Structures are given as structure tokens and as C-alpha cells.
Amino acid sequence: MTELGAAAPAPPVWTPDPALVAASNVGRFMAAYGLATHEELLARSVEEPEWFWDAVVSFLGLEWFTPYDKVLDVSEGIEWAKWFVGGRLNVAHNCVDRHAAARPDAVALIWEGEDGDARELSYAELRVLTDQIASLLASRGIAAGDAVGIFLPMVPETVAALMAVAKLGARFLPIFSGYAADAIAVRLDDGGAKALVTADGFLRRGQPVLMKEIADEAVAAVPSVDTVVVVSRLGRTDVPMTAGRDVLLDEFAGGEPVPSLPVDSEHVLFIAYTSGTTGRPKGAVHVHGGFLAKIAEEVAFQTDLRVSEEPGPSGPSERGRGDRLFWVTDMGWIMGPWEVFGTLASGGTLVLYEGAPDFPGPDRLWSLVERHAVTILGVSPTLVRALRRHGDEPVLAHDLSSLRILGSTGEPWNEDPWRWYFEVVGQGRCPVINISGGTEVGACFLSPHVTQPLSPCSLGGPSLGMAVDVFDDAGRPVRGEVGELVCTKPWPGMTRGVWGDPQRYIETYWSTFPGVWRHGDWASVSADGQWFLHGRSDDTLNVAGKRIGPAEIETVLVSHPAVVEAAVVGVPDEVKGEALWCYVVLGEGEEAGDGLRAELADLVAARMGKAFRPGAVRFTTGLPKTRSAKVVRRAIRAVAIGADPGDLSSLEDPAALDAIAGAG
Questions:
Q1: To 10 degrees, what angle do helices 211-219 and 181-191 make?
Q2: What is residue 64's three-state secondary structure?
Q3: Three-class SS of residue 288?
Q4: Is pLDDT at 536 greater than 80 in this prediction?
């Protein structure tokens, strides 16, 4: 059991209006099944998962070509659970084809590039683009079971490529658009890719990133790839092309519509790779039936994405009648597939943005929300902390009245940035749906819903249908204390293993508590039932025999008005075992110096106890982060102690480690 203190109960700052509850997707679901409260729904969804997921599929109108005859099969053990047994479906049919037939003119996606270019595709137009890519891949021999790498920026063709691969019954490998060639090659090789879809390039902070050259270097090391499809994003005339292997998408005419291939519910849809401290990245396996059901439920029930069934002023097929969801993400992070499949399964509108959210100015994100009337916005806490340093004016300069739901995920919150997001961005009227899950989860373990009162930084509670708990070291449930976040029952979106390495899957997730998934997060449940995360358990610090999560120390540091970001790591210490080293980023105009250094160390000691007084406080100009804005603490620690930092392929800016090395 950790000695880290649990978060104290906090009063709700947002309470749902009864009318909102009744109109919400969760409220309508409860009414349909005679459930009076959210607590009653949650309890039944956890106790009767087969009832719940069958009801979800029906309520959301997900379509199977062949109905399943059993919701759940655990005959091979909870670790290898199968869902919707005997059913045949295809996610591309559910996300594109059926909407293109029923609401062809409804807006499927809106895209904006960093240079201001913009495109809008209806569901009918998205189907045409999807079928063009599917026809091209099929003409190159791609068929059911084959693997196709997707190395693209966030452009409309990216969405169409995912759907095209799914249509054919092939599996896609989503690859972070900022990876270098070696990282791409490892994933293509591990997944057995036969083809790669990439672009001539994209823009990042005003500079072109030449993706095709990076892709060529990667493919040269993967003999199984014999087709490279090139999307012309920048319109380059000098893009290198290899005869017989490379095909420009614009030069392929396409042809007849491509029907979605009916596949088994457990047929592999994609492999999502996660980076680790050592060894090769893990390939989390996700399948058509389970991933679709879980993600469609989450976007519909957690972010309450809705599509009006009523005809608009322009008639029954009026464009833009659904919610518009924009999550600041990349397809190489699980939130990329999450937003694509969840939004389109519900028939909503997906908003994509290609570039940096603070370029060319700190108001870029807020101007985009205003320009495209975004109704559901998702960010990471780290991004909010970075944007908050610019003050309120960039936000207040734009009309954000279209927003009705704020989302977040990625890392634990600190209260001050959370309140800024809630009060300044959302004007105190939008609930913050703070979700937590993971690539291997394929979804969320914890999430608030619009049917619940919300406290600052809270994750609300378990996601519907998720039997999550907090265990101590002996595997006993605890409350009012911090322990390991676990899940005691299977769920549809869970990975079907680590690709090509079933033993690694068992050892990583199921070996600590047999028959129970250990996720690797510290969590706690407060006296009033609110759930909180305290960081990764493998980031835990042990100072003089007392364990603590870095997020708690970081919260103290960023409470100082001079500090905008902080990261805390443990380094070996002869006396304490580990000493705390704190790396802080100061706000504009703030001056580093020994006086401030001592002030910050005193602040931590006063708030956390003398035992946790930092051994060092160092000032840096930036922290190493992934494109999804997660701080990579293990890389900071490695630089601090001169160790191997492990896989750094997910870093957005590897030069940030130079800033850490030079911190004083």
C-alpha cells in the first residue's frame, strides 16, 4: 500500500440541469431501460455486462451483417475474452456507408491545415474518398488479414485510409506523424506491413516536414512493404517516387463503390503501438466488434455527442446537424482512432487540425473552435498548462459559445489549470469530461458523465460497464488511500493481446493480481465517491522509505505564480534512497535564481513534509513531451543520472532533452 495521501473531497463546481440529463444520450438510455439514477445504471452495467453491451449496441443502432449469438465468452479465461461471438460486421459500414446512404449530405468531417487551408466532406464524399483508397489498395493485392501502415498527418485522407483498410478486412497500423524512420520501420516490421499510406509532407510551426523521404528510409528496412500510396498534402513537384512501388493517390481514378467486407466480430481491426522504457514497442491488438461498441458508447455517453433526428431548415439531409467534436491528437495516439470511430459511428462531425495548437499565435486553438463552431473540445492537461501561460486574453478574444462539452485526458490535472479550463474556456457552463484509459484498454476505465455533479480534477467514477477498483499491494480494495488501478472483469475494447507475444501480454497486465488487469496507474477514491489519478505507478518515487507520485509534487510547484510547468523525478541518494529533482519552466518575465530555487524547495517541504524537500530545483526552458503532450519523466531521469532513456521515438521535440541537460 502506498503512503501517498488520497485527494481530499471537494464540493462540486458543476451540477447538471435536469433538462440536460433528460436530453443526454445517457439520460435517454436510462429512460429506455427504466433506470432512475446514474448510480443505478453504473451498478447494473458492471454487474450485468452482457445485458449492458447488448443494450448499447441496440440503442446506438450499430449494425451486424450477421447477428451475434452470444455477447461474451470467457471459456479461455478472462485474459482472452471474446465479445459478440458469431457476429459479422465491419466498422467502415457503421462509420461511413450507412450514414452515406441515410444522410449523404450531412457533414462527416471538417479539416483545417496550419496554413489556413480548409476542406469539408459530407458522408457521401467521405465514402467516395474511402472507396478510392480501398480500390487502390485492392488493386495492389491488399486483402483480408493484410497489414497497412498509416503514416499521415491529420488530414481527411487519414480518416478515409483507416476506413478503406477496414473495408477490405485488412488491419491498419497507425503511426505517429512525427516519428523518425527507425521508429516507423520497427512498427511496420513488427506488424508485417505489406503497404504504407503516407504523404508528401505537412506543416509544423510553419515549416514543411518531408514525410515521403522519411517513409522511404523506413520502408527500405522493411522488405515486406511493396506498395507506398502517397497523398499530396503540400502539392510538391519534387517528391521522390519509386517506380513499381509508389502510387500517387491523386492519379488513381478509383471506380465502383467498394462494399465493406463482413468480418467476424473478433477480426483484427488495427494494432496500436505503445512505447516502453526498454525493448520493442508493444502492439495492442484491437478488433472490429469490441472496439466499435466500446468507442461508440464512450463518445455517445461520455462526451454526449448527439445527432438531431429532426429535419433542419434545409430539409431532412441538412448539413451540419450533429455535434462537432475536435480532440487535439495525432493518429499515433489512441485518441486518434477514438475520435474517428466514435464520432463517425454516431453520425456526428469530426474536426481535424494538422498543425501546432499555438501557431502562429497562442490563440490558434481558440480561433479554430470559433471558426468551425466546435461543440466538444478535447485536450490534455499539459496543453492547457502551456496555453494558460499566455493569459486569458487569447481565449476571451474569441466567441466560444458553441462549446457545450470540454474533454481531457493524458495526465493527472492540477487544480488551478483545471479551473482555468473550466472557468475561462468553458465559462463555468461546460462540464469537464476528464477521461482515463490507455492504448491497451482501447477505451476508458474512468470517466465522468453529464448525469453527474463534477468536482475539480475528478474523473467522476468508473466508465459504464467497467469493473474498476483500487487495490493495495495485497490485492485488497481500498478507499481513502492510494493504490493500483485495476479492472476485475473483461470489457469489449480490451486488447486481444500483444501482437506476436502473448506471454508479454500476460506478464505486463495480468501477473501482479491473477485474473485481474493491473493498469499501472495510482488511483484513489475520495470519501464522497470521486475518483482521482496520481500518475503512473512506475513513476513512483521512494524517498526515505516513503512513496509518493511525482504529480503531487508537481502540483505544489505549479501552484507558485512564477511556475507554469514542472516535472519531478527521483535520483539515487545514499541517505534517502531517492532524492527529488525538480525541473521547472518559468512564466514570461520570471527570473531564475537561487532565491526562487530556495523558495520552491521551501514550498514543497511546507506542503508535503520535510522528508520531501527537493534535493535539486533546476530551471529549464522546456520539458520533453510526446505529441499528445505527455511529459516523459523517464527520459528526464535518464538525462539526470546519465542512463539510457529507452525509446524516445514518441518525443515531439528531442531537443527538449538538451534543455534538461543544460538546466541550472
A1: 50
A2: coil
A3: helix
A4: no
d(Cα 460, Cα 444) in Å, to the nearest integer? 12
Map grid coordinates 474498476 to a residue: 468
DSSP character string of 567-618: EEEEEEETTTEEEEEEEEEEPTT----HHHHHHHHHHHHHHH-GGG--SEEE
Kindly report the average pLDDT of the chain as a whole number: 91
What Cα–Cα distance (Å) separates residue 641 from each residue in 4, 508, 636, 645, 660?
25, 26, 9, 10, 12
Residue 518 pairs in a beta bridge with 486
Backbone angles phi, psi at 611, to 5 degrees: -60, -25
Residue 81 within any structural domain of the chain: no
For 57-67, how does the pLDDT look when each residue is reduced to its tens digit (9 = 90+)?
999 999 999 99
Q: Do the Cβ atoms of 185 and 192 come closer than 8 Å?
A: no
Which pairing describes strands 436-438 and 443-446: parallel, antiparallel, or unpaired? antiparallel
Return the C-alpha cell found at 18. Answer: 435536469
Report how far residue 588's alpha carbon sits from residue 564's, in angstroms, rounded to the nearest whole number: 9
**Between vectors from CA 598 to CA 595 and to CA 604, what angle results, nearest 5°?**
140
CA torsion angle 18 20 23 27 (round to 10): -60
Q: C-alpha angle 2/3/4, rounded to 5°?
A: 90
432-475 pLDDT, tens digit each: 999 999 899 988 999 999 999 999 998 999 999 999 999 998 99
pLDDT at residue 2 in the model:
39
- Convert the pLDDT of each residue in 370-391 to its tens digit: 999 999 999 998 899 889 989 9
Work out the average pLDDT over 104-113: 98
User: What pLDDT does 315 receive?
Assistant: 45
Q: Vertex 326, ends 325 and 332: CA angle to 5°?
A: 120
Is residue 120 situated within a structural domain? Answer: no
Alpha-carbon gap, residue 441 to 123, rounded angstroms:
29
Residue 302 has pLDDT above 70, yes or no: yes
The residue among 307, 327, 328 whose CA lies nearest residue 317 is: 307
Query: How many CB atoms within 10 Å of residue 45?
Result: 23
How many domains does the chain fold into? 1
Q: How far apart are CA 625 and CA 588, in angstroms?
A: 20
| Region for 572 from its dihedrals, namely left if φ exceeds 0, alpha if ψ lies in -120 to 50, beta otherwise | beta
Residue recorded with cell 457545450? 404
pTM of the model: 0.87
CB 144 within 8 A of CB 169: yes
Q: Where are the beta strands (DSSP E) in 301-450?
A: 324-327, 349-353, 376-379, 405-408, 432-434, 436-438, 443-446
The answer to whether the peptide bond before residue 316 is cis (omega within 30 degrees of 0) is no
In a domain, 448, yes or no: no
Distances (CA, A) of 583 to 418, 538, 619, 622, 641: 21, 19, 6, 9, 14
Q: Could you give the angle at the alpha carbon of 305 between the alpha carbons of 380 and 110, nearest 5°? A: 75
Domain assignment of residue 614, given as a range: 540-661
Amino acid at 84: F
Are 426 and 406 within 8 A, CB to CB? yes
69 within some domain = no
Q: What is the CATH classification number for the domain harbouring 649? A: 3.30.300.30
147-156, 315-324, 599-608: least confidently modelled range:
315-324
